[in-house]
Amino acid sequence: MFGWEFPPHILGGLGTASYGLTEGMWQCGDMEIDFVIPKPWGDENRSFANIIGASQVPIVWRDVNREYVQERIGKVMSPDLYFDLRNHIYADFNYMHTNDLGCIEFSGRYPDNLLEEINNYSICAGVIARTLDFDVIHSHDWLTYPAGIHAKKVTGKPFVIHVHATDFDRSRGKVNPTVFGIELDGMHHADHIITVSNLTRQTVIEKYGIDPAKVTTVHNAVTPLSDELLNVEVTKPKEKIVTFLGRITMQKGPEYFVEAAAKVLKNNHNVRFVMAGSGDMRENKFMKCSRRAMCTSCPRFRSPLESPRLRRCRWEYRQSSPSRADVPRF
């Protein structure tokens, strides 16, 4: 599997979905999964997947001994795998900037040079594909499609792409032509396409011209809450609480939330609107003015992932990605 995020270091839903799918597949039995991400941190759960960091994959030969490799990257990759990968470097990449182990450094995030990192990731995928033995190639979202295509060309193995979202979803129709091109290339090379909803499936068929027989919907699963969380005692507040919990980005439609809040608060002041999350719209002018005007008493959290206080809250309603259905839902 090729992915871009893996818990606990996540920036959105992609890492969480990849984690759940990987764990679920492993629980089916008789399956080994290698999960490649740009940059592992060493604290990932490796009980059901072998985490491989592209940032530890050598693309340039370096004359280093086992002790040095163990000292440098032993926390995230075994020296044996490093040397095995080094034996499968397939081209002269000395022109590229690499570190003392002959590896490319990755940010592990979504940097300004994201397209460069995607290309570098696909170079590392070529080394991995020549080294490991596997049966199926599975790429999560457009960032890893080039890597999957490279692996397929090297091995001829079946290639499946997992469409968590298309650029039509992320941009509300104002697609980035470069991203669209990468997505289309991945869909054409894929032997099969998995989408997370029927709506996304229709987008793939209608906007990208893909044969419907090639596209299957597999909905994301839900992990039941633990007894510990279910049994948390909370004091029910006097006022109703409406919560926006997620990324504050255009795709999630946070402006619908504040517009709905304005309408509700005109008629009912016994309601508190809570926004928890981060994203590029968090500090834009519209959101700032709306929050000042309507939600000055609302608690503010830096991030839902960093807010134990939020986990103890009880809310009556929540908003869920209204921009995908074009109506706010509570």
Describe what you observe in this structure.
This protein is an alpha/beta fold and 330 residues long. It is built from twelve helices and nine strands. The protein has helices at residues 13-27, 66-73, 79-86, 114-131, 145-155, 167-171, 177-189, 198-208, 227-230, 254-267, 285-294, 308-311, and strands at residues 34-37, 50-53, 137-140, 159-163, 192-195, 215-217, 240-245, 271-276, 317-319. A four-stranded parallel sheet has the order 3-4-5-6.
Q: Describe the strand arrangement of the main beta sheet, using strand numbers.
A: 3-4-5-6
Please outline the major beta sheet. 4 strands, parallel
Residue windows where pLDDT falls under 50 for at least 5 positions = 296-302, 304-312, 324-330
Radius of gyration: 22 Å
Continuous helix count = 12
Separation of the first and last Cα atoms:
36 Å
Anisotropy-based shape: globular
Work out the number of β strands: 9
N-to-C series of helices and strands: HEEHHHEHEHHEHEHEHEHHE
Strand content: 5-15%
Which short descriptors sum up this protein?
12 helices; 330 residues; 9 strands; alpha/beta; 12% strand; single chain; three-stranded parallel β-sheet; globular
